[in-house]
What we know:
This protein is α+β, with helices and mostly antiparallel strands. The protein has helices spanning about 15-45, 60-145, 165-180, 195-205, 215-220, and strands spanning about 185, 195, 225, 235-240, 245-250, 255-260, 265-270, 280.
Amino acid sequence: MSHTAHIRSHRKPRRSASTIAMRAGVAGGVLSTLAVAGASGSANAAEPVTQTLELPTLTADLAAQVAQSADVTQQAAASYQLQAERDAAAESAAKQAKTDLAEAKKKAAEAKKKAEEAERKEAAERASRSAERVTLSASSDTGSSTGTGTSTGTGTGTSVGSSTATGSAAAVVAFAQAQVGKAYVSGATGPSAYDCSGLVQAAFKQVGISLPRVSQAQSTAGTQVGLSNLQPGDILYWGGAGSAYHVGVYVGDGMFVGAQNSSTGVVERPLSYDPPSGAVRVL
C-alpha cells in the first residue's frame, strides 16, 4: 500500500458540463436583460415623459359637509357681531346713565341751594319785620300823643276797630273782600288771580284812583298814618316805606284783605295774623 494512500486529494472536483452550461445560460440571460434595459433607458432619455395627476372629485357628501362648515362659520361670525353690538349698546347706556345721574345730582344740589337761600331770605325778612314793628310801635306811640296832623281831614280820630266805610272807601273794601278765595299768582292783576300789589291796584281802580303797580311805590302813594288810627280803605304795607315787600287793604274791625302767597291765595285776616309795618291813606 502506498504511503500516500490515506491522504486526501487537494484537487477540486470537476464540475459537470451541465452545471457549466446552466451557469453560462444564466449569465447570458443577465447580459441580455441588461442590454435591453440599457436600450430602453436610452430611448426614454431621448423622449421626455409627461405625467397627469388626477385630483379626487368632490362627492355629494363632501360638498354638503363643506356647505355646512361655511354655514357654521357664518353663524359664528353673526353671533360675534351681535354680541359686539350688545356690548357697545350696554356701554353707551352705562355712559348715558352716568351722565343722567350726574345731571340729577347737580339739579338736586341747585334746588337744595335755592331752598336754603329762600329759607335764609325768609328768616331775614321775618327779622326785618320784627325790627320794623318795634320801631313803628315806638313811633306810633309818639305820634298818638302828639296828634296826627298830616291826615287828609277824613277823620284821624277813628280807632283801629272802626268798620265804618262810606263812599269810595266802602267800594274799595267791598271789592277787596269780594276777591277772597282767589289764587295768588306773582305778577297777576285779576280778575281770577292776584299778587299783593295787583289786588290793591285793582281795588282802587274801582273808584278811579290809579296806583303804582309795585308794593314799594304803593307804600308811599298817600299820607302816612299811624296803625292806631286806621280807617277802612287804608293801604297797609310790610317793610319800610318806599321799600315795602307786601301790601294789603284794611277793611275795618281790625281785619285786612291781602293776596298773601301761593299757599293761601287772597285771604281776610286779623292784623295780629301778620302785623303790618305801616299804612298810607289815599282816600
